[in-house]
Amino acid sequence: MAIDIDHRSGTVYLSDGMEHANADDPLGGEWRRMVSERLTSIGFVPLNISELGLQYNVRHGDVYTNLSMDTEKDQINRKAVIRTHFVDTDLKLLKEDTDAIILYWDEAARLGAGTVAEAQFAYNNDIPIFIVSAWENWETEVPGWLFALSTKVFANFDDCIEYFGSLPKGILSRDEYDNRGTDSHYLCSLTGEVFEKQNHHFVSKVSPLYSKEAVTTVRKSHEDHKIRYEFMREYLIKTFGDSESAYHRIEELIVSDVDYAYSWLANLSVGLQDCGNVDKETADKAAAHFMSVAFGSTLTIEKYDQICKLAIDNL
Questions:
Q1: Would you tell me which of 9, 58, 80, 216 could form a disulfide with 43, CB atoms 3.0–4.6 Å apart?
Q2: Beta strands 185-187 and 181-182, pairing class
Q3: What are 202-247's pLDDT values in tens digits?
Q4: How far apart are CA 87 and CA 289, in angstroms?
Q5: First-residue to last-residue Cα distance in the chain
Q6: CATH 3.40.50.10400-classified regions of the chain
Q7: Do 264 and 293 contact (CB within 8 A), yes or no?
Q8: H helices within 135-279, ranges in order?
Q9: Separation in Å, CA 70 to CA 77, 112, 208
Q10: The domain 11-173 belongs to what CATH superfamily?
């Protein structure tokens, strides 16, 4: 059951590297405390995982610090504890109780795995991700994959908090149709812009939720190039499918690629000559006949030589 915060503007999970945090700022607590205070002042509920973890330790003890990697048994125990008390807990907090993420991309995040894993999980669950970069030139420091997952990127916390303060109250929370919107205003997951749905609001789940301008951009990205997944799947089926598919793939290459067809011709001819008393001319004709019957190829050694000579003459 999600946290009841109807009187607030939404919950914001604060994500960053903890395992590799600076020694003078254990668990990345300093920036989380600062952002938590500022988010609270403008009506949001911060999910400060550092503070929540410390409060857990006070009540139930530290489950992490004394974990060992000395023996295989210790390693399995460490893995089980991290899965239960960190991976599963944090991802459940994201899925069940989070309206948005502020992700601080710094050296601690770059050295670890949890921050990027949380971002991917949030993206898969339609949770907007707002990145704050520790580097001003974030365009070259934020990895392309992470950038693609994000809703918006900021060069500093001031701009990020100002953006959150400008959002209509409640827009980060899901409405009755599971969309992030309020009073016919919605959040575009591609750009972070707030747009108004004219005439009437969405009456079903829309995912991903795009503004009109974003829809145009995404449509163009589909139309400009063949979808990579479709190509890769077709290629794998042709390459590693059943024998008939493999045959048709070879046939297609032989018909469309004269150099590839010649490699077959030449190897067949040489193979015939190596078998015994077959002269080159006879072997060349036999190879061309096989290629014609098997693949419908009209190429001969003589034709290939003519093609090469013509190409050289046109240089």
A1: 9
A2: antiparallel
A3: 778 888 899 999 999 998 988 888 888 888 988 887 777 766 667 7
A4: 64
A5: 73
A6: 11-173
A7: no
A8: 138-141, 144-149, 157-166, 212-224, 228-240, 243-256, 258-275
A9: 11, 21, 46
A10: Hypothetical protein PA1492 (3.40.50.10400)
